[in-house]
């Protein structure tokens, strides 16, 4: 009723007003008629629904995922360490390739020592990186040291590449008084403010929305930095993974989502994790540029990460990389993978498709490495690892009072009470506590 009354008033005004008013109203009317006829014509050609880009079809057809070709795997080096297509050769300096190889093998040696250390009851827990070294060094080398890393937990090589020392790794795993986290975290939960590596938080996918937020901050700061967020294909099933990918896409965040698809989430193989074509197939669904690479090819990972970084920086957009690899070790020291996969399967990846041997072949082909250098490095690097290991083991544990520090600026009264009670109790029953192994209480 109200709109009819308004229309009547308008018509009346149109009839009685001066010419200029008449002209204005009539023009408005003409314009609206022609606009609506134009859009009617467009409606017939193309759907105008907000939120999609497509066309009309007149035959009922479901999209059959089986009929879609899988996302291809980008590769630079073949298994014999030869460049397949010269145009893709990253032409890295000998020093860089040597550092890649030395860090990959050093990580391998450190893993063996710390894994054994846990088996002998010297540390509480450990996770190896066997088989995934190429994803670590290939991606880390393509980044700027100022780029912020959010890891899951199986990316120790990225931290090693950035300069985290063997002492620092060992101190953290031993939770001794030199550990940056003051012994409060489980082993492998590394972090380094100096190296822009955010401390590991193992509830799966927590790092992903945090990383998207940090990337948004990078965009606002405009200091030429991006974020890289590592996650496993298992973690990609968490709701937080969806939130992170969608936020980053919608808010145009400069972030590289780097999925390490190593075939398993503890004992769950990928076939029981998802039905689609891995994680890469999800990228376009989020409107994110995506590439799938051979994660055992360090150069392919390097090229993909470098190109992704450029996209992030120059276009302020996220990129998704899915690096296909294989977890050669058990999930962690709390797992025995022989219960759910065959020895043959594991040895195929260990012997036939291993990132370390592939890079070694490349170096041998280049004449940059030989058996003598290999043996010397093996011995020398093991010595370095054993030295750091022995020193970390010999260091005292942190002062037990550190349990109460670094959360509150001023300790609240109830925690102060607990701190006092702990101290009195421990000092009163000294004989039951190995206090000589701890830094002295104040
Ligand atoms: C929210 C949450 N659920 C379950 C776990 C237990 N958990 C630890 S690691 C892991 C598997 C993760 O697999 P993936 O993301 O593929 O990483 P990978 O270990 O293969 O590197 C699970 C289920 C956890 N840490 N957090
Ligand atoms: Mg996995």
TrEMBL record:
<dbReference type="GO" id="GO:0046872">
    <property type="term" value="F:metal ion binding"/>
</dbReference>
<feature type="domain" description="Dehydrogenase E1 component">
    <location>
        <begin position="102"/>
        <end position="401"/>
    </location>
</feature>
<dbReference type="InterPro" id="IPR001017">
    <property type="entry name" value="DH_E1"/>
</dbReference>
<protein>
    <recommendedName>
        <fullName>2-oxoisovalerate dehydrogenase subunit alpha</fullName>
        <ecNumber>1.2.4.4</ecNumber>
    </recommendedName>
</protein>
<keyword id="KW-0496">Mitochondrion</keyword>
<dbReference type="Pfam" id="PF00676">
    <property type="entry name" value="E1_dh"/>
</dbReference>
<keyword id="KW-0786">Thiamine pyrophosphate</keyword>
<dbReference type="InterPro" id="IPR029061">
    <property type="entry name" value="THDP-binding"/>
</dbReference>
<keyword id="KW-0630">Potassium</keyword>
<keyword id="KW-0809">Transit peptide</keyword>
<comment type="function">
    <text>The branched-chain alpha-keto dehydrogenase complex catalyzes the overall conversion of alpha-keto acids to acyl-CoA and CO(2). It contains multiple copies of three enzymatic components: branched-chain alpha-keto acid decarboxylase (E1), lipoamide acyltransferase (E2) and lipoamide dehydrogenase (E3).</text>
</comment>
<keyword id="KW-0479">Metal-binding</keyword>
<dbReference type="InterPro" id="IPR050771">
    <property type="entry name" value="Alpha-ketoacid_DH_E1_comp"/>
</dbReference>
<dbReference type="GO" id="GO:0003863">
    <property type="term" value="F:branched-chain 2-oxo acid dehydrogenase activity"/>
</dbReference>
<dbReference type="GO" id="GO:0005759">
    <property type="term" value="C:mitochondrial matrix"/>
</dbReference>
<comment type="similarity">
    <text>Belongs to the BCKDHA family.</text>
</comment>
<keyword id="KW-0560">Oxidoreductase</keyword>
